[in-house]
Fold each of these.
Amino acid sequence: MLSYNDAVAGWTITIGRGWCSTMEITDEPVQLASMTLAGVGARTDNQCEAGPEGCIPELWQRFMEAGLSQLPGTQEPRYTYVLYTDYESDVNGAYTVLIGHEWEGEPPVVDKVGWTTAALPESRYIVFKASGGPVQQVVIEAWQYIWAWFESSPHVRTYSGDFERYDMAGFNPEQAVVEIYLAIQ
């Protein structure tokens, strides 16, 4: 079911299949300033992440165990970001993924964590908000929906830096809510 949602100034789609029960899409792109993110990262691609060799679950584990949210320099620690950047080409190419927080200043040395930083450039974004089930399933289904949506969308992705944002205040991994920001021209 598709309905216009004045509260988000966009569309709400009730998917009704799989785990992701609803997807909200902003009607108008939002403009965000540049920011620096710091956390743990790796180089990967979607084919690798679809199989048992995917690195994102291990990055989440390293991020949670490291306690990076408590370090000085972390801006708004309630928000955790998963940044996709340094794209080789498009959805089919390699990219860098970083799980962390908005950061101000020089990152500290954190042993055994693989600390890294990345700059997210100022950009216009289309925002998707997915909810309704276990976090891993909601995120996978949301990205599948997003890839299909962009195939017929008038918006063109820039692949300059896309990100998921999780509000960890009251976060329930069994009833996940995730905002996904896609940079567009």
Amino acid sequence: MKKDTNEQHGAFAQTAAGAELLENNCAMTLAMQVIGGKWKLLILNAIRKECPARFGELRNKMVDITHATLTAQLRELERDGVIERKAYAVSPPKVEYKLTELGKQLVPVMQALCDWGEAFRQSAAVSAEGREEGTAE
């Protein structure tokens, strides 16, 4: 039987919250700690679609995110081993982000969420049309 250790779960496990979650063996909570929040899945999806992705490209695709927030989220994803950062020694600075092998395991999850979102949008549109037809009578 495989025993979870802090070494197996990277930097996240070194935090108090990470250690507590690993002790509780709550996989969904652990996953949400790593990829949850307003921006992380959107960032990962953008990197998935255009890999490798440069910082400026990510910033342009997500107009509502601040520079500081994008930087912090990218650092957290890198720290947790989901993305890899490669800096080039050029002027102006060039930095690219790509999914690690661990991050690539999220691709089917992201695709399933995209598919679900599209199905929900379509069912919501049908429901809205039905409500409008009901009020027009």
